[in-house]
């Protein structure tokens, strides 16, 4: 109690000092570090489990009209707008006007679905009606061409527990893995890659595959695919209770040889055996194509090769093909031709993109993929999983960053960003290092800063 | 519908190792793809030579590039790519490999088919480097003048044509840039590059002109509360000050660059209305600013908010006068930059190594890294005149001085890539 008073006094004193500071000269620095940070309560409230309250019904889209945030959509909104508006913007300072909120929601109700997709949902409560261009209908259609083709719903496939933890130097205990998967499930994610049934000789980090599967057995309503490089792995997966498997071909011969010890054709033969066995047991199979843009050994990969492998996987019965830019070298200039080639032979709705952020390019690649109609994105909580080809470089794109962008685009994901961030926090603490997600770092630093005052 | 066969006619399907051979001074035997067409390769080499004359067999240029790269030590990359050792001497080609492969020029087939996605992107994008000012201004420790000057010179050598050199604010507020005059003096002899300096008021403007500045910049905000808190005056008063500077600079024939901060979100107000941004942009345009840079100060923008904002501004300011200045605080900068390019913007502000944190989230990143932007632009086939390898050298230099790792993912990856057999 005493400490609270002290803290409050100190913060107030700081605030007073600040006022004096700024008023004493016209020559304001352009540096912004002297500004007071945000209200602690806002921050903490944001991350509490009750923080994200869905708004009133929004035409069935079920998302919060906030940039950078999303609520679980299954619940209808029944709240307390007042409490809600307190967390409207993660970066926003503390003044809110409830009346404006109601006006906003009324106005939004009349605008229709399209306006939300184009980001009008982000209009500030206070500024909304002052904007003459608030209604997307006023804006000529041609300028929305870059956003109109983006799907209204994007499925996020979380690969952290497998692709992420597989690349960790130290083996993460089974209990932590199980806890991670449970927590991810509570964020609204519908597909979480649980583990991989490869020989522990090659991937010791996932040697506890069976135990992990046992630990997550009770999870309902969540799909938990596991990697199975061959029939033996498949059988082990089925015995352990897996209900969905994944296979992993490469678009590059040399990468295939060095990574799974056989060339592309041989690997496809292996996978045909797996898919045949899976079909008999009615187990869906997800296909991954790696090195879809560039290979560390061969260099650039022709789109036609990628299309070939994708088609083979699709023909053998994979229900979804995930195209992976394994070394993260792609840019829209190479992603577009590759997607065009693959979309010519596999229906777009069966495709997913799996970009690596090694060169910082993943979000722009994801954006252009969305613009081309792809509606499934693979990502990893806290950007887990470095790049095996560039030690110390980042690897998987962070789920928090992807969800932040999708929320801002008005795309439905059914995931809760706040909960995702706490899961990212959990696993980062376990691994003893900062999160690989910039969104998570930014939002958590803001909290930490505020709590010092 | 474009068939795959049709795509094969495109140049981008030829494996780059063949093409890159042309860069080195000796023909190298490299692993070749059996489907390579010799004629296509020759054509490709020809066009590449014409497009990048600096990479012809002119021995002096080649040596220059080699030594630049040997200093940087990008060797690891070529080893990873399993090329013969002699390629180490022309490692720049190695960096081109990973991001130039299909788009040494833009693939016209892709352009036609998905024209709406890549067609609108300009052929040339100017990069405005803000590292020495916006970056170093946010550093805790003060960087010595000679280091600043050296950084600027290294940036100049990478091909950047506009580098924000410093800021003429009172040293009481921004001690990191107290040596503004000396920095300008140090770069006096550099030709062909523009060095805008920030001038928050007339006093700063006079000081800048006295120190030899040939371009200045002003900095209003689109958010009233941010303007009051940061610049101690509302938007209108601020614009009045900018008008004074603009008219003063007109008498000196000095161009003025206008920045608008908080174009998407404000730490106080939350979302900022596009109309407000358009209002400030229009005012800056009318007072004679040569360029208006739209800054997402706290990095919260996504294409969903950037597009409406740009549309509002494009209504009142011609697209060739606009620049975008995104912060990567939430990792959104490159996707925002991409959507801006698609809308026709052709000037991008960035900071070498991502210098300059976010003042609102201590420890979070701030400015987008120039290396990452150049990597993306190179990959799309947009001309920037910036040499990524030399840029990385400049980034490496300043990061070594500051004693910390680069915030640029492309730079980090390129410097650490090495062969490693990964197991599935």
From TrEMBL, chain A:
Matching entries from PROSITE patterns are given as: PYR_CT
Is Metal-binding one of the keywords? Answer: yes
Q: Which GO terms describe its biological process?
A: ketone body biosynthetic process; L-leucine catabolic process
Which residues are listed as membrane-spanning? none
Under CDD domains, the record lists: DRE_TIM_HMGL
The protein's name in its UniProt record: hydroxymethylglutaryl-CoA lyase
Q: Name one Pfam family in it.
A: HMGL-like
Which InterPro entries does the record associate with it? Aldolase_TIM, HMGL, PYR_CT
PANTHER family linked: HYDROXYMETHYLGLUTARYL-COA LYASE
Matching NCBIfam families: PRK05692.1
Q: Which pathway does it serve?
A: Metabolic intermediate metabolism; (S)-3-hydroxy-3-methylglutaryl-CoA degradation; acetoacetate from (S)-3-hydroxy-3-methylglutaryl-CoA: step 1/1
- Cite the EC number: 4.1.3.4
Where do the Pyruvate carboxyltransferase domain residues begin and end?
154-421
Reaction equation(s) it catalyzes:
(3S)-3-hydroxy-3-methylglutaryl-CoA = acetoacetate + acetyl-CoA
GO CC aspect terms: mitochondrion
Task: Name the family the entry cites.
Answer: Belongs to the HMG-CoA lyase family.
Which GO molecular function annotations are given, in alphabetical order? Answer: hydroxymethylglutaryl-CoA lyase activity; metal ion binding
Keyword list (alphabetical) reads: Lyase, Metal-binding
Q: What is the lineage of its organism?
A: Eukaryota, Viridiplantae, Streptophyta, Embryophyta, Tracheophyta
């Amino acid at each position: 109690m005493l400490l609270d008073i002290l803290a409050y006094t100190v913060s107030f004193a700081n605030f007073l000092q600040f006022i004096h500071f700024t008023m004493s000269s016209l020559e304001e620095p352009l540096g912004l570090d002297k500004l007071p940070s945000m209200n602690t309560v806002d921050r903490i409230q944001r991350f509490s489990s009750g923080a994200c309250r869905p708004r009133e019904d929004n035409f069935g889209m079920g998302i919060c009209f906030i940039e950078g945030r999303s609520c679980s959509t299954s619940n209808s909104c029944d709240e307390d707008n007042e409490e809600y508006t307190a967390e409207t913007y993660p970066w926003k300072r503390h003044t809110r006007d409830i009346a404006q909120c109601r006006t906003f929601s009324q106005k939004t109700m009349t605008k229709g679905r399209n306006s939300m997709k184009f980001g009008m949902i982000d209009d500030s409560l206070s500024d909304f009606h002052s904007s003459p261009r608030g209604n997307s209908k006023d804006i000529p259609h041609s300028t929305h061409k870059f956003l109109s083709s983006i799907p209204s719903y994007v499925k996020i496939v979380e690969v952290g527990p497998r692709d992420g933890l597989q690349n960790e130097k130290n083996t993460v205990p089974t209990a932590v893995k199980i806890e991670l998967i449970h927590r991810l499930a509570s964020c609204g994610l519908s597909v979480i890659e649980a583990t991989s049934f490869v020989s522990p000789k090659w991937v010791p980090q996932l040697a506890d595959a069976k135990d992990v599967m046992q630990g997550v057995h009770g999870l309902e309503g969540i799909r938990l695919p596991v990697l199975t490089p061959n029939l033996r792995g498949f059988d082990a997966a089925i015995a352990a209770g897996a209900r969905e498997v994944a296979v992993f071909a490469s678009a590059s011969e040399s990468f295939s040889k060095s990574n799974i010890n056989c060339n592309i054709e041989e690997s496809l033969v292996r996978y045909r055996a797996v898919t045949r066995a899976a079909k008999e047991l009615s187990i869906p199979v997800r296909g991954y194509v790696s090195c879809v843009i560039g290979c560390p050994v061969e260099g650039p990969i022709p789109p036609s090769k990628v299309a070939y492998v994708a088609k083979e996987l699709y023909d053998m019965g994979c229900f979804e093909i995930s195209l992976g830019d394994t070394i993260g070298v792609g840019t829209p200039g190479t992603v577009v031709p590759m997607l065009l080639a693959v979309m010519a032979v596999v229906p777009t709705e069966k495709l997913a993109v799996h970009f690596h952020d090694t060169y910082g390019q993943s979000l722009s690649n994801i954006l252009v993929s969305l613009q081309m109609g792809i509606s499934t994105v693979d990502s990893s909580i806290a950007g887990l999983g470095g790049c095996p080809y560039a030690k110390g470089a980042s690897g998987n794109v962070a789920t928090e960053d992807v969800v932040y962008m999708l929320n801002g685009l008005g795309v439905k994901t059914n995931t809760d960003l706040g909960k995702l961030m706490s899961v990212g926090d959990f696993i980062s603490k376990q691994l003893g290092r900062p999160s690989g997600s910039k969104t998570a770092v930014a939002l958590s630093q803001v909290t930490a800063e505020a709590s010092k005052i | 519908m474009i068939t795959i066969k049709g795509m094969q006619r495109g140049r981008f399907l030829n494996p780059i190792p063949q093409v890159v051979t042309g860069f080195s001074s000796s023909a190298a035997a490299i692993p070749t793809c059996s489907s390579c067409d010799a004629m296509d390769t020759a054509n490709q080499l020809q066009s590449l030579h014409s497009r990048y004359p600096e990479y012809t067999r002119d021995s002096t240029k080649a040596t220059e590039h080699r030594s630049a790269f040997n200093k940087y030590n990008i060797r690891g990359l070529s080893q990873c790519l399993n090329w013969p050792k002699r390629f180490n001497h022309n490692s720049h080609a190695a960096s081109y490999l990973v991001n130039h492969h299909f788009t040494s020029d833009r693939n016209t087939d892709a352009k036609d088919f998905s024209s709406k996605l890549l067609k609108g992107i300009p052929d040339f994008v100017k990069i405005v480097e803000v590292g020495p000012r916006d970056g170093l201004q946010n550093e805790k420790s003060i960087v010595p003048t000679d280091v600043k000057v050296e950084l600027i010179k290294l940036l100049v050598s990478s091909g950047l044509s506009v580098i924000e050199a410093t800021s003429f604010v009172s040293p009481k507020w921004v001690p990191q840039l107290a040596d503004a005059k000396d920095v300008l003096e140090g770069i006096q002899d550099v030709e062909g590059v523009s060095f805008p300096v920030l001038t928050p008021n007339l006093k700063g403007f006079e000081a800048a002109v006295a120190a030899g500045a040939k371009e200045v910049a002003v900095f209003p905000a689109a958010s009233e509360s941010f303007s009051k808190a940061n610049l101690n005056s509302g938007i209108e008063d601020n614009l009045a000050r900018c008008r004074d500077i603009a008219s003063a600079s007109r008498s000196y024939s000095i161009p003025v660059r206008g920045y608008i901060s908080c174009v998407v979100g404000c730490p106080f107000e939350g979302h900022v209305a596009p109309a407000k941004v358009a209002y400030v942009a229009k005012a800056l345009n009318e007072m004679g600013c040569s360029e208006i840079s739209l800054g997402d100060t706290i990095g919260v923008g996504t294409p969903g908010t950037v597009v409406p904002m740009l549309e509002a501004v494009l209504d009142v300011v011609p697209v060739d006068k606009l620049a975008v200045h995104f912060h990567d605080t939430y990792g959104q900068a490159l996707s925002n930059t991409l959507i801006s390019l698609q809308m026709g913007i052709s000037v991008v502000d960035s900071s070498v190594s991502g210098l300059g944190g976010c003042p609102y989230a201590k420890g979070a990143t701030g400015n987008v890294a120039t290396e990452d932007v150049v990597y993306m632009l190179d990959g799309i086939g947009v001309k920037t005149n910036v040499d990524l390898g030399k840029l990385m050298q400049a980034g490496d230099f300043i990061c070594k001085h500051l004693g910390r790792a680069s915030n640029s993912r492309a730079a980090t990856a390129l410097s650490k890539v090495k062969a490693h057999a990964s197991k599935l």
